[in-house]
Amino acid sequence: MPLQPGTRLGPYEILAPLGAGGMGEVYKARDPRLDRDVAIKVLPEHLAASADAMARFEREARAVAALSHPNILAIYDIGSDRDVKYLVTELLEGETLRARMKAHTLGWRRAAEVAGAVCDGLAAAHAKGITHRDLKPENIFLTSDGRVKILDFGLARRTAAPAEGATVSELATQPGSVMGTPGYMSPEQVRGEVTTEATDIFSLGCVLYEAVAGQRPFERTTVADTMAAILQQEPPSIPASKIGGPLEADRIIRRCLAKNAHDRFHSAHDLGLAIRDAGPAATTTSPTRWRWWIPASALAAVVVSVAVYWFAGRVRTIDSIAVLPLVHGSAEAEYLSDGITESLINSLSRIPKLKVISSSGVFRYKGKAADPKTAGNELGVRAVLTGKLTQRGDTLAVTVALVDVSDNSHLWGEQYNRKLADLLVVQEEIARDVADKLRLRLSGDENRQLADRQTENAAAYQLYLKGHFAISRYTQEGINQGIENMQQAIAIDPSYALAYAGIADAHLIAADWYTAPREAHAKAREAAAKALSLNNRLAEAHTAMAAIKTFQDWDWKGAEQDFQKALQINPRYTRTHLFYAFQLCAQKRFQEAHESTRKAGEVEPFSAEAASYTTMPLYFMRKYDDALQAARRAMSIDSNYFFSHLIAGWAWEQKGQLREAIAALETAVRIAYNPQTKSELARLRALAGDTAAAEAGRQELLELRRKAYVPAFDLALLHDALGKREEALRLMEQAFEDRSWWITWLAIDPRVDRLRSEPRVQTLMRRAGLVQ
């Protein structure tokens, strides 16, 4: 029986009905405890009456609630009152995609925006092992403020078989029906097989098709015919005029709708990337029609000539390549396989005529049985180098193959059997052979760059690779292990400048996270200076020194000189662009900073780190919507990179939307449980009025501070949010003495607005040279 306005369900007051369907009735309600409106879904009797179904439902609801993603409907509570089971979610204003599509088709541009946001939500859920199983326009909501939300995520488990002859529309709302909705079900769902991430990708492909074509891809008169079409038939072609988008749009949709799950996009993340990379509608002009008459013999001669030219010179047309991570036979060889892969990428990147995908682009295929043609198409290259590394004692076997992406043909392959002591030599051989097979004519200088070794000692090089591998994990244990490996390499080869630069970089990574910055900077300065004394042509060492001058010395002029030197040596070293942007922000040169982060993104378009740091100039410029858009882009690359969620939370905070800000910080804490994320979450809870939770977070951090480094800057902001102004100022002065990196942005960070007018903070800004 429908609930009447004024009825209480648990602590909630029913305000008005919102709708009903097979999964229950939905009401607008009021939560008087938090003084906010919510949506309440009253679960149907068939679900509430089954103990097993209810237990499963509650498990899934908890799992989805833990996702806390901006593109997934937030679940607040599950309850029971007088045998009525209900679910409490955020209240949305707007309309479903179904309602929007009833008015008109979306066209590629808008459909791609919606689908890209859905991919972000799916990627976050899939990463937690949760699939939706019933993605359709009714379960995609477009809010009035421009957001996209996935509804009923992972909750609609349907187990009974459909009634014979039931229509599609009847089955869509029928409780207890087969899992999924005909018209959007994947072939494996129709067959009753286990669902995977690929199932959601197929369903989203159906939604994309309908959004641009105006009809469902497999729509038939009956359920049986619809299911048969999903299993056996291809959807009708969409006229280019209807798509209104790039040529790539049709290929993306059809790949989503592949019958075989393995032929679809490997992940929602990859699908989102392809959608965004496809871009908006391409502008085309109609060609002028000409009538030609060519004698048959002449036409045949032309065809033969073109064919001979093409086959003879097809390799010469390959001007772009991706080096996929070498497969390794054991965990002990992982650092070698990763190291050789990165070395090959770095070597080939020195060839101006060749576009080489960066490490961040190819390492997402690590550990996956990636098809070279598929990977090549996704990365936008014409050739892919694959390989396998096997280590047996002091013997190394590296097998590589060069594949033409256009037809998946094998262009060249070779096996290199060498002693481990010849590791440096084998990398050079592979790089030279690839350049040779691609018919790239190298100049003398380019040949020398391919053989630019930083050490002649293979044992030292192995230790460097081990150290680099450990440091790249960004954990305190990894950094400590990496520094130890680098020091061992230096003990073997005291002139190994790159190892010194690696130590400097490791200390900079640890600064303000795991180690007091002043201490970390001193060690980094010593290592960077030694590296430069050995080799003044190391971009890594110049970048490290520039970072020290920025964050420790506040020497803007000296830092800029080192940054410019590093960029001249190697304009493809991403960290230079990012650190330079940080320094430019401190000087309020925001447009230059934004340009610097944009260049980092060009060098490594698949790097979540590079993408997330593009948000910083935008945030400091107080362009919060743009910062959020940039953060979402970073999340689409890797939803598990915590800084994207951290800065998204800051942007939501400044927009006055603390609920979204807290949700973003909760995600950041789950991904990276560190003092900064914990402190920021506590601060936002304090601003939202949840003083008890904020105070609990503060006490936890103060206890941790007795045993480990906790940034004073973050604690200062937390204390200020709790109204402890005097302690906040004392901690801010401590952060200044510690040389916290965030002091560099004291004059521009919106989080400091509440404190900036304090005379003691003004003094700190003057001492750091941030204001006159």
Strand order of the largest sheet: 1-2-3-4-6-5
Number of strands: 15
How big is the Rg? Answer: 29 Å
Beta-strand content bin: 5-15%
Mean pLDDT: 85
Shape: globular
* Assembly status: single chain
Spans with pLDDT under 50 lasting ≥5 residues? 155-178, 281-314
CATH topology of the largest domain: Serine Threonine Protein Phosphatase 5, Tetratricopeptide repeat
Total helices: the number is 35
Helix content: 40-55%
Characterise this structure:
This protein is α+β, with helices and mostly antiparallel strands and 772 residues long. The protein folds into four domains: 8-90, Phosphorylase Kinase, domain 1, CATH 3.30.200; 94-278, Transferase(Phosphotransferase), domain 1 (Orthogonal Bundle); 315-453, Rossmann fold (3-Layer(aba) Sandwich), CATH 3.40.50; 537-767, Serine Threonine Protein Phosphatase 5, Tetratricopeptide repeat (Alpha Horseshoe). Helix content is 53%, strand content 12%. It contains 35 helices and 15 strands. The strands form three sheets. Strands 1-2-3-4-6-5 form a six-stranded antiparallel beta sheet, with helices on one face. Strand 2 and strand 3 (24-31) form a beta hairpin. Helix 7 packs across helix 10. The chain is globular.
